[in-house]
Amino acid sequence: MNPITMQLVADKYIRLALEEDINSEDVSTNAVMPEAKAGAVDLICKEDGVIAGLPIFTRTFQLLDPQTSVECSVKDGDRVSNGQHLATVKGDIRVLLSGERTALNYLQRLSGIATYTRSVTELLQGTKTTLLDTRKTTPCMRIFEKYAVRMGGGANHRYNLSDGVMLKDNHINAAGGVQAAIAAARAYAPFVRKIEVETETLDMVREAVEAGADIIMLDNMTTEQMAEAIAIIDGRAQTECSGNITRENIKKITDLGVDFVSSGALTHSAPILDLSLKHLRVTE
Predict the structure, then answer these.
(1) Alpha-carbon gap, residue 211 to 178, rounded angstroms
(2) What is the mean pLDDT of residues 165-177?
(3) Which of 96, 194, 197, 208 sits at a 20 to 30 Å CA gap from 132?
């Protein structure tokens, strides 16, 4: 995550997380460390995985004290292993203690997403299918969680509702049908916006093709239905498969030739990667 994005967008969310954890003072730290004292602590990996979120981890400490430094021996997207030393955090011991939990919460969560995403992208190697995330993210964590997906080798679907046109079942119902919804979106949205339509039946697929949809989502279809839908589309629109796609069942769609597969599980079901800050010591 580049410094401009960090300061313009991410900082406000990190500050909120810190304020959630320290709404007046860190009583425990202030009790045992009433004055500033230089120290260091090591970031240790406790299970194999993919690391993601080191800039957010670092920024969490630096928002408490800009003088804090983090010396990393790995970079985001790297594979890491149980027992590996990943970084050393140096600064005021009070900052190291007060920022520890929030910084680790970010790093463990994002590394877990990157690890899970990497395991799914590996199943798609050798196919034409690109793995996408969804908007099924933790509130106020989307910018971080979608970043973690990229670090795991996946790609991002639209970031938010302003980012693109996706006509789902309720939009279609509100408009009065697939063709009416696409026509309304085409008239309203700027020409630079692609129009994606969610379809649940082959009849809806045919309507979407005839109405000129740019991307057609095949939602919760069987493998046989998806194969028939792709034949109907016949390259006239990009295709996306969605609906309860997980690492365990993604194999069934790899031979269909679908352009994209989107999975909410990347962000809503990935377990954290176990990481820890250990060996705190005074350095002055």
Answers:
(1) 8
(2) 96
(3) 208
